[in-house]
Amino acid sequence: MIRWCAAVVLTVTLGACVQVLGIKDAERDPLRAKPASESAATNPAAAVCKNYCNLVMDACQGKLQQYATPEVCLAVCNMFDKGEPGAMSGNTANCRLTKVTAVKNSGEVADLATCAAAGPGGNGTCGSECEAYCALLQKACSADFHDFANDLAGCQTKCKAFPVVGVFEQSIRGGDSLECRLYHVTSAVLDAIHCGHAIGASICVKGGDENTGAGGSGAGGGGAGGAGGK
Fold first, then answer.
1. Are 221 and 205 within 8 A, CB to CB?
2. Which pLDDT score, from 0 to 100, does residue 6 have?
C-alpha cells in the first residue's frame, strides 16, 4: 500500500513538472506557443508575402526601391488578392512574386520597369497603377476613399486624370502626381496620417513637399514621364 501511494505521488509530481516545463518552453520559443496555422510554413498566403517582400526589398534598392520598409511591404502585400502561383498578370501578390523571382533567378540586375511591375503599382503588368491605388485606398483609408469616390470604378476614373511623372519608385513623395499618391497610400497601410496625402488633400499637390508638409502654388507635380499603365 505504501509503495502504491508513493508511485501515485511520483506520477502526479512528474506530470505537474512536465506541464510547467511545457509552459516555460513555450514562453522561450514563441513558435511552440502559436497554433501551426499562424506559421508561414503552414499558411500559404503568409508565405507568399514573406517570400515576396524578402525578394523585392533585396532586388529593388536605391532608386529602384518600391517600399519604404519591409514592414510596409508586408502590410501592403497582405491587402493584395493572392492570385494563382506563377501568375504573369493581374493585381495580385503572386504576379508580383513571379516578376521579382524571375529577376533573382536570372542573376541579372533589376531595372526600374521590372521593379515597378513587382512593386505596389504593378506598372501595367501586375495590374495598373490606378487599379492598385484604388484597391489600397479603399482598404487602408475607407473614410477618405468614400469622400473621394463612390466606388472603385469612380476612383479609377478620377485616378486616370492624375499627372504621371515617371515609373513608380518610393522616393516620389511630394507633388501633384499619381506616383506621390501611390507612395502615400502604401504608407497609409501602417499610418493613417498618409490617407489625406493619398487623396491629394496636401503634399501630393502642386508644389507639395513631404518634408515640410506644405502644398501650394510652387512648381512641381505633373510632367512628362513614363506611363505605368494607368
1. yes
2. 42
